[in-house]
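Inverse folding, one chain.
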């Protein structure tokens, strides 16, 4: 415990330096430029920073990026801001930052594994990995941004719930009953203390506050339930067979309206169904976990449940509308929320479409010696490939093989790659982020991320080289590792 406290204290010292630099920039009247990633964690991080900068009357702008590359670096360099802040990105691109943004005052607020090497003396990096804290489980990008926000002003504790949303978006609920540990647990305590968050343990179905129960079942993709996910009529049939009424007084019932006995019956039926399809028993347990209810949000909205809030933010980014997500994080509950709900519907429909396409084209998923490869080609949009890889990774029969999914970005001549490993591999010391970095660089690309989830971009004509290298590197890394059972 003392070691944990020492690591947290070391991290908070860097947080203080970053907060002081932000305040100094604001006092000078110089502009702050925030660059963040387009997933839920990145958008939540940008929202936290945006609200905090607004409160200190900063001149600032926020931009959301698909990824960081030379083009983005050159655009930032041309603006000549007083301070550049990277949120939920940057640590894996320190070499490019040194090359393109040397001489700029820059803060990196990230939780991905940092690239080794020296950085400019004008760069300040706040990253849990540099202090012995696991950035894939114990602190998200939004969490790092929240720590900065709280240091700027203690009253920003009211933004802790957004860091919880960001961490859920990055699937950091890896502890008992799908809860948080590490620094995330401290942030959860802040959100509860601020009166914004309630905790409970229940079935985890999307839209538990908002959707009719049969739709919640049909929208469940983690885990993907064959013959239920994407199949509203079959979800209705299952509920009817269990004598669970979908309406009460002509009003649709959501998961929150079911009795405990009804929930137990539903869980038992889903567990049995998954077992009949060949899934291991622990897959069904993913349907039960800690519920994070946002008390200040209206019931029957997708913001009430923190996981659905995260899904909404992810949907705005993945459908090309991240400004809606930032607006919602900064307090808009009007037109932005209405449009974001439409983006969420589009996002869910796309996921079901891509999963059905893969089901109809099983040859697109190939098992190699050490990895699974999902060839999304031109059909699966690059902004959706990470969501698809996350869903599929929990449904592969061999948990000792990482999954590599890719999508072609024709207009840029590259492939976007999303990779996922299993908890079994990670517990054995496997590091997917480092492997994908090496494979990408050897294929004239860039890559990195976490031990359990990572990504890369490589030239389109090198994708076969990349896949071959990944298969070889994974095989080499697994030699001598006792995976047990």
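Residues assigned per position:
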């Amino acid at each position: 415990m003392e070691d944990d406290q020492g690591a947290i204290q070391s991290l908070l010292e860097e947080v203080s330096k970053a907060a002081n630099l932000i305040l100094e920039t604001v006092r000078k009247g110089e502009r702050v430029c925030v660059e963040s990633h387009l997933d839920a964690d990145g958008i939540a991080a940008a929202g936290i920073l945006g609200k905090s900068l607004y409160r200190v009357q900063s001149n600032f702008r926020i931009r959301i990026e698909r990824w960081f590359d030379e083009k983005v670096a050159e655009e930032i360099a041309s603006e000549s801001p007083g301070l550049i802040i990277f949120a939920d990105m940057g640590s894996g691109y320190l070499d490019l930052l040194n090359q393109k943004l040397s001489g700029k005052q820059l803060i990196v607020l990230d939780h991905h594994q940092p690239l080794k090497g020296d950085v400019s003396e004008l760069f300040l990096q706040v990253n849990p990995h540099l202090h012995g804290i696991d950035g894939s489980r114990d602190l998200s990008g939004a969490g790092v941004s929240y720590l900065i926000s709280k240091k700027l002003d203690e009253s920003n504790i009211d933004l802790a719930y957004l860091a919880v949303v960001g961490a859920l978006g990055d699937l950091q609920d890896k502890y008992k009953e799908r809860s948080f540990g590490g620094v995330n647990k401290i942030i959860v305590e802040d959100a509860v203390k601020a009166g914004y968050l309630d905790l409970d343990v229940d079935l985890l179905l999307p839209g538990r506050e908002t959707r009719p129960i049969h739709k919640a079942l049909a929208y469940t993709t983690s885990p993907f339930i064959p013959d239920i996910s994407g199949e509203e009529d079959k979800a209705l049939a299952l509920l009817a067979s269990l004598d669970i009424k979908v309406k009460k007084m002509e009003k649709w019932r959501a998961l929150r309206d079911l009795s405990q006995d009804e929930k137990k019956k539903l869980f038992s039926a889903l567990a049995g169904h998954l077992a009949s399809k060949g899934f291991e028993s622990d897959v069904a347990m993913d349907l039960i976990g800690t519920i994070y209810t946002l008390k200040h949000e209206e019931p029957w909205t997708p913001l009430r449940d923190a996981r659905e809030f995260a899904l909404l933010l992810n949907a705005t980014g993945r459908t090309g509308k991240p400004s809606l997500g930032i607006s919602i994080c900064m307090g808009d509950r009007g037109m932005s929320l209405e449009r974001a709900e439409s983006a969420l519907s589009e996002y869910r429909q796309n996921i079901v479409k891509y999963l059905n396409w893969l089901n109809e084209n099983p040859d697109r998923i190939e098992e190699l010696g050490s990895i699974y490869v999902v060839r999304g080609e031109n059909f699966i949009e690059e902004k959706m490939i990470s969501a698809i890889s996350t869903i599929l990774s929990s449904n592969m029969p061999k948990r000792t093989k990482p999954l590599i999914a890719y999508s072609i970005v024709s207009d840029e001549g590259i492939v976007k790659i999303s990779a996922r490993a299993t908890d079994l591999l990670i517990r054995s010391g496997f590091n997917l982020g480092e492997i994908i970095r090496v494979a990408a660089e050897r294929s004239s690309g860039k890559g990195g991320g976490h031990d359990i989830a990572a990504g890369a971009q490589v030239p389109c004509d090198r994708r076969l080289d990349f896949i071959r290298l990944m298969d070889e590197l994974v095989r080499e890394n697994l030699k001598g590792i006792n995976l047990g059972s």
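Residues 201-354 form one domain. The first helix runs from residue 2 to 27.
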